[in-house]
Give the backbone structure.
Amino acid sequence: MPARSDWKPGLTHIGTQKQLFLDDHRVESLKHAAFVLNPAKKYRDNPVYRREHPWEGNAIHYGAVIYDEQDQLFRMWVQNHHFTGEERVIKKTAGSVPAGTEKRWLYATSTDGYHWEKPDLGLVEFEGSTKNNILGPDNWRSFKGGVFIDPNETDPNKRFKAMAQISKQDDRDVSDPDAPEAEQRFPWNLYTSGDALNWTPHPENPVIDRPESIWGPTAMMGWDPIRQVYAAHMENCINKYAVFGPHLCPLAMRIIGRAESPDLENWSEPETILLPDQDDPPDLEFYSMWATTYENYYIGMLWNFRKASATLWPQLVFSRDGIDYDRRYREPFIQLGDEGDFDSVNVYAQQPIIHDDTIFIYYGGQNWRASEQMDHLLNEYGPDDPNGPQGQMGLATVPLDGFVSIDFGQQHYGEVVTKSFVFEGNTLQVNMRTAPLGWNTGLPELKVEILAADHTPLPGYKFDEADTLAETGFAQVVSWQGNSDVGALAGKPIKLKFYGKNVKLFAYQFVG
């Protein structure tokens, strides 16, 4: 295979990078096939974190989940509230937490992502015992920005990082809404930990403290391996318009911004990257966005908030540069629950977590959001009734690469031709799923033909020589009359032509 420096300029070099079918970026033509969004499926035993003990409140307001590769462990932190009902939702604090609440922070772990344990931490006494999973204020600082593991950290006592929004006046975790405008601040503190339980404040806190930059609900992405910076996405023009004036929120609506830092201490001014457009309902705003990098893409869970109904759900968005996001799939990626379900009003989806052959998306689900909804539930059922106000942590999953697929129907062979590219490796693999039983009557088939850059079928890799793939698999090996070796084509410009029936095609990749 020729060295990369010998390849002709102007060609797309994909190497061994997996190519997802999120859109037609690498597709030249499509016939009798279509791009289809595959919404995440809720776990059948949701919620994965639910109220079981007296110290657990009836509503999770914020949650954070990460997967710790080093310890092979899922870790969850939740900010939990118990609504006493003593003072119904007449006034709300700056963090939108109803008055008349008792707030606690809780911790849980899981080895498989589905079944969670609530360890006895022995940190906080509740009704005469410390056998509970409560985190004290010294162990948890309401990390609304989320928790992440820093791959660049060399000190094991600092490998966990978290950001907490605090008050300038008294070091609380929210700003005082009744303070004079000139005194209100929404700075952020940085914390580090070696065990994910005990946190140390950064000596230069607050690391973000700009009166002119009012960061709303923020999702700390952590290290961005594509742009090689630390990144955060925030509500960049929050509904503080009525408080702070149009000089800070000229659009008078929630939109999404991105800020970057080389070291988690020095941050850029937020740049607006997502705002509603002419195809959105007039009352739609963007509340927050949790994002991660996946293969050569950014994948985001964009929180769509409808002001009229006070409902919120995630929309799948994606980008190649972290700035320009594609919103072509407008439907909810995780559906709201039915009336009476814990997630019937809000689905606060977090960043996707890739683990083995599954993509885990945890979310905080609530059956209320607006003050009127809470007031009605408290009046109708009381604070402790299962039908009353509640919030739990739910889980939705997607198969590996399964956000979007190209679907081939049964009437004709569907055809997909890629744009020309140069690859490395000697084997071609595809991630595909056959039609579920009852979808239609045709048998599943997928064949791959390799073309020269001028569209000429290459000998040994033509359609008539292609072996049929007919089974679901994340890494199905493509072959032609039993031969799967494509090494002779490495370094040469080619195209792939997929022929399919009754198949969902998610991605392809050259390996070896």
